[in-house]
Amino acid sequence: MSAIDLYARARPGFEDRIAATVALLRQAAADHAGRIVQATSLGAEDMVLTDLIARFELPIAIATLQTGQLHAETLALIPAIEQRYGLPVEVYSPREETVVQFVRRHGEQEMYQSIDLRKNCCQIRKLEPLSRMLEGRSAWVTGLRREQSANRGGVPLREVEAGGRVKLNPLADWTWNDIWHYIASHDVPYNPLHDQFMPSIGCAPCTRAIAVGEEFRAGRWWWEDEKAKECGLHATRTNRHGANDEAVAA
Ligand code: SF4
């Protein structure tokens, strides 16, 4: 069975949620003209956002992080977006020399050795390229949803980060059923790994399929304690204020 067969369900208020999402994106595009970007993970949620940006011709740039560890199925979505929508996708990669030195020192499997090494890998392959993606931009758009995990239960539609940049999470109140109902209704391209029980897809070494009954993000960094699961792309408010070290990951 495909992810569409399993999850696509029409729920009350669906059209209203689409309208509210488009209104939020449209307003943000006007408020941050030329300085707003969708940071797409190329996951199902982000493909919905890209489709909305394209369909409603919203002037929001589209960008992704090419960590060097993504599945071929994920990478194939970059040309798929460009062909389907005629929109360019900005690709930000880690600095080659830094990666070479890190791998030479710690090997290719370092993420399994310790949480510190795993975080170092995320810093090099994700956070540093993200900082370049966001340079000169006053707002960014993510596909975070409250339903994705307990950590994300309080995700707001809009927040202002330390430093003043605005972060928009327009799908915060969408459900997994909504996401797949939208994908099915609009024939949105999506990662075929979602059909293999991978609801949340990141780098290949750090993603596995989940079993029946497991939580949405159980296939991410599954060898780590729940509290340690962060890569820093989406630090919580408490994290930013230094009150605890918990954060959520893309
Ligand atoms: S998710 Fe895994 S492979 Fe990707 S940057 Fe983080 S530790 Fe490295």
Task: Describe this protein's structure.
The structure is a single chain. The protein has 250 residues and is an alpha/beta fold. It contains 9 helices and 8 strands. Strand 5 (158-160) and strand 6 (166-168) form a beta hairpin. The model is unreliable at 237-249 (pLDDT under 50). The chain binds iron/sulfur cluster. Residues 67, 69, 111, 118, 121-122, 125-126, 202-203, 205-206, 231 line the site of iron/sulfur cluster.
Give me some keywords for this one:
globular; about 250 residues; alpha/beta; binds iron/sulfur cluster; about 40% helix; six-stranded mixed sheet; two-stranded antiparallel sheet
Quick structural summary:
With 250 residues, this protein is α/β, with parallel strands linked by helices. The chain is built from 9 helices and 8 strands.
Bound molecules: iron/sulfur cluster
Q: Number of helical segments?
A: 9
Encode the helix/strand succession as letters. HHEHEHHEHHEEEHEHE
Beta-strand portion reads 5-15%
Overall pLDDT confidence: 92
Q: Give the helix proportion (percent range).
A: 25-40%
**Main pleated sheet:** 6 strands, mixed
Number of strands: 8
The stretches of 5 or more residues where confidence is low (pLDDT under 50) are 237-249
Shape: globular
Structural class: alpha/beta
User: What distance separates the N and C termini?
Assistant: 26 Å
Q: Report Rg.
A: 17 Å
- Record the strand order, biggest sheet: 3-2-1-4-6-5
